[in-house]
Amino acid sequence: MVIIQNGALVCPDGMRYGDVALEGGHIARMAAAVEPTEADEVYDASGCWVFPGFIDAHTHMQCWTGMDWTADSFETGTRAAACGGTTTIVDYATADRGVTMPDGLAEWHRRADGTCTANYAFHMALAEWNERNRADLKVMRDAGVASFKAYLAYDHLKLEDSELLELMEALKPLGATLCVHCENGSIIDAMQKRVVARGITGPEGHPLSRPVEAEADAVSRFLYLAHLAGDARVNVVHLSTKMGLDAIRAAKARGQKNIFVETCPQYLLLDDTCYLERGADGFAGAKYVMSPPPRKPSDRAALREAVLTGEIDTIATDHCSFNLHGQKDRGRGDFRKIPNGGPGVEHRPALIATSFAGELGPTDLCRLMSEMPAKVFGMWPQKGQLAEGADADVCVWDPTAEWTINAATQHQNVDHTTYEGFECCGRAHLTFVNGVLAAQDGEPTGAQPGQYVAR
């Protein structure tokens, strides 16, 4: 057995001091004290918080985005995740137009199976709606896919409103959740042309071409359609604006019960002044080209308040890494050609714990980054909690560790971080995946115990 001693255990009913024993991929015992034998591996967690492993329910690993391949593979991305305390990711497998969902899922398994340090599950994104996909929804559910995704932006991915309605109606009897990228794609296409016509071609054109109204309109439209579908179970991903938050509040006020809301560290820590960063080559602002973009300080403040009041259910990363040199710089002279996305899977727990210090306690961090992702996406009660019989995914967190985020020392396979120089207080001391020590003090052990999570 693996025995973690003397920690402050972050449990569903609050915190208590005690020991946790891991055996056979599960939590075998939790008690005030677990007496070890000579054969047991013993780790001292004195002064640490012991969390159920963190879950990042929004990543894009080893993915072709229409412009380029992401810099992180499942191997590098899940290794980085474990170094930061994340023991499970939920990645967006995609059935592009002309590809069936079973074939799309098989391809994502081919990319991930046998390579992962952290556990991995898959959402399934649909780029078209037809009778084959309608029939294959149950096939996906039987394969352990409990959540799906649709887009209201990107011409090669987006669905029409009527198709979105039919998709939600078809998912409802399956008990599945629909995640939607909420931006008005046709408005963005038009705004991009306007911005370029004004002679704005650098990274600063990106946020100008994706106004807050484009997100708010899409959020509102999506939630009206979910209401029309009989209060379908839905998840608004990467919420970035106060106007979008107000649309969610309006939907809840009219009685919708099955709305879940995700935001990301970039919308809680950054704002659109980041696009003015020039750097040595004048193009550093490209690091922040992601969709949706970081917004105004007032949006950031509204979302941070929503985190504190419980209106945000989960914090994920939308990890979608591209190198600044050799990938993002292909868009020099035309921001529309900069691959959209940024890294984050390694640093999310430290960013949130540090930036909300004194406002969010251990139980809050657990709720936002472990418990609620498990509940929303069909992994509870095996994941998301410390309890006997639950999976042996555990993060022993040292809340006093002081360190600085640097691209030179990160494990994300990308040449930059959007949080360069951020001073953190708190770090994953020990990360166990399925009972195996996968990372220690921010460094990988070399183990690859990650398994597919059928939900």
The coarse overall form would be: globular
Q: From the coordinates shown, what is the CATH architecture of the largest domain?
A: Alpha-Beta Barrel
Flag low-confidence runs.
none
How many structural domains does the protein architecture include? 2
Sheet with most strands: 9 strands, mixed
Output the structural class.
Answer: alpha/beta
SSE run: EEEEEEHEHEHEHEHHHEHEHHEHHEEEE
Q: Beta-strand percentage? A: 15-25%
What's the alpha carbon Rg, rounded to whole Å? 21 Å
Number of helices: 12
State the helicity in percent bands. 25-40%
CATH superfamily of the largest domain: Metal-dependent hydrolases
Number of strands: 17
| Assigned CATH class of the largest domain | Alpha Beta
The CATH topology of the largest domain corresponds to TIM Barrel
Modified residues (N6-carboxylysine): 149
Family: Belongs to the metallo-dependent hydrolases superfamily. Hydantoinase/dihydropyrimidinase family.
Protein name: D-hydantoinase
Domain Amidohydrolase-related: 49-435
Secondary-structure map:
Blueprint: E1 2-11, E2 14-23, E3 26-31, E4 41-44, E5 49-52, E6 54-59, H1 74-83, E7 86-95, H2 101-112, E8 119-126, H3 131-142, E9 147-151, H4 161-171, E10 177-181, H5 185-197, H6 205-208, H7 212-228, E11 234-236, H8 242-253, E12 259-263, H9 265-269, H10 297-309, E13 314-315, H11 348-355, H12 362-376, E14 394-404, E15 423-433, E16 436-440, E17 443-444
Parallel strand pairs: 1-4, 1-5, 6-7, 7-8, 8-9, 9-10, 10-11, 11-12, 12-13
Antiparallel strand pairs: 1-2, 2-3, 5-14, 14-15, 15-16, 16-17
Helix pairs in contact: 4-7, 7-8
